[in-house]
Design brief:
2 helices; rod-shaped
């Protein structure tokens, strides 16, 4: 029946619905006004349409108000969770931007170091007659698997040292020209 008494199917041994206020068969002792006296467990949300402890059924308007209040509470809880998540994401974004800026700075420093070593290599090879023209520094190889930047810096340094050592040995064999 619309707007009439709520159908009750869960009765206690005394014929009362659990959670229906003080008295025999209720889950709350006399004089206790906690959430369990309002048709809900401790700390849980009320159940729409369940009597609030006055012994009678709720009208449709009262049930509507209760449902709207529950929906409002749920929306506010969702908004609070969303605010917390937004704060977490903003913090993570700021951290990633700091890491990205540091990576860009490391890339620039590495490129400057490679350019400097390239120029030194060109100067060291200037007197070699077999080299017609050295040209521009080659572009970075993008197919190389990712590793720590220090490993790449060490490889460049080792390659340059190897070049300088081989040129020093050649000049020794040619009569000491450097």
């Amino acid at each position: 029946m619309i707007g009439g008494p709520v159908a009750m199917t869960a009765f206690s041994a005394s014929g009362r619905v659990p959670g229906q206020g003080p008295g025999p068969g209720s889950d709350v002792g006399p004089g206790m006004g906690s959430g369990t006296a309002q048709g809900r467990g401790a700390g849980s949300a009320p159940v729409p349409g369940v009597n609030s402890g006055f012994g009678g059924a709720l009208s449709a308007a009262e049930r509507y108000k209760e449902v709207v209040e529950l929906a409002g509470d749920a929306v506010e809880r969702m908004r609070q969770v969303d605010r917390e998540r937004v704060a977490q994401l903003i913090e993570a974004l700021a951290e990633s931007q700091i890491r990205m800026a540091a990576a860009i700075d490391r890339e620039k420093v590495a490129e400057l170091g490679v350019d400097e070593l390239w120029q030194q290599a060109v100067e060291a090879l200037w007197e070699e007659r077999s080299i017609e023209s050295i040209g521009q520094r080659p572009r970075p190889d993008q197919t190389v698997p990712p590793r720590d930047q220090l490993e790449y810096d060490n490889e460049v340094e080792l390659a340059y040292r190897g070049l300088v050592e081989s040129l020093a040995k050649r000049s020794l064999f040619r009569g000491g020209k450097s």
